[in-house]
C-alpha cells in the first residue's frame, strides 16, 4: 500500500464550481499535512497546511483533515482556469511523503 | 529572501559522466531536502540534512549518488557515473523545522543521453 494515495485525475470542473481533491494516508502517527500546487514545468508551491482535525480556510481554499479516517481533502471554491494544475498531497512522517498528485482542469 | 536557489536549471550529459547539482537553501532554514521527480514515480525523497548533518539517505537509489552539505548555505548532489535512467527533475527544498512545509527551488532538469 502506498503511503499517500491520490486519484491521478484529471478532475475537470467548470469555472466557478467547487473542486474537491482527496487524499488518504497510511501512517497513523502523521501529525502535519500539506497541499502543494504544481504548474506544468514548475516547482511545487505550498498552498495549505493543516495540523488538527477539522477545516482550515484560506481564501478560496479549504483543507479538511480527519485523522480517524486517515483522510485529508482540499476544496477550491469559485474555481478559475488559473487553478488548472497538479495538486500534491503531502504527509509528514519525519519527512514529507508526497502523493503522485491529482491533475485539475478548470474549463471556462 | 531569494528563496531556494538551484543550479544549473538544465543539464544534458552523456552516460558515464559525473553530474553535480547545487543548492542554496533559505537562510535560517535548518533542514535541506533533495527530491527527484519523474512521471512514473512522482516526487521521491532522496536524502535530507538537519544542521548540515545527513539524517536519512534511505532514498538514495545506489552508490552512484552522493550528497554533501559542507555549510548551512550550500549543498551538492552528485551522480557518478550517470545513467539514462537518472534523467529526471531534481528539486532541493528547505524548511525551518521538521513539522513545517518545505519551500522548493526551481529544480534542475537532468537529461542523460
Layout of secondary structure:
The complex is a heterodimer of chains A (108) and B (113).
Chain A: E1 4-5, E2 11-14, E3 19-25, E4 33-38, E5 45-50, E6 54-58, E7 61-66, E8 71-76, E9 85-92, E10 96-98, E11 102-107
Parallel strand pairs in A: 2-11
Antiparallel strand pairs in A: 1-3, 3-8, 4-5, 4-9, 6-7, 7-8, 9-10, 9-11
Chain B: E1 5-7, E2 10-13, E3 19-24, E4 31-38, E5 42-50, E6 53-56, E7 65-71, E8 74-79, E9 88-95, E10 103-104, E11 108-112
Parallel strand pairs in B: 2-11
Antiparallel strand pairs in B: 1-3, 3-8, 4-5, 4-9, 5-6, 7-8, 9-10, 9-11
- Give the C-alpha Rg of chain B: 13 Å
- Uncertain runs of chain A with pLDDT below 50, 5 residues or more? none
**How many strand units of chain A?**
11
Encode the helix/strand succession of chain B as letters: EEEEEEEEEEE
For the terminal residues of chain B, how far apart are their CA atoms? 36 Å
Low-pLDDT segments, ≥5 res of chain B: none
**What oligomeric state is this?**
heterodimer
Largest interface: A-B, 22 and 17 residues
Let me know the largest β-sheet of chain B: 7 strands, mixed
Please provide the ordered H/E string of secondary-structure elements of chain A. EEEEEEEEEEE
User: Helical content of chain A, roughly?
Assistant: under 10%
What is the total tally of β strands of chain B? 11
Strand content of chain A is: over 45%
Q: What structural category arises from helix and sheet content of chain B?
A: mainly beta
Total helical segments of chain B:
0
Give the helix proportion of chain B (percent range): under 10%
The largest sheet of chain A is:
6 strands, mixed
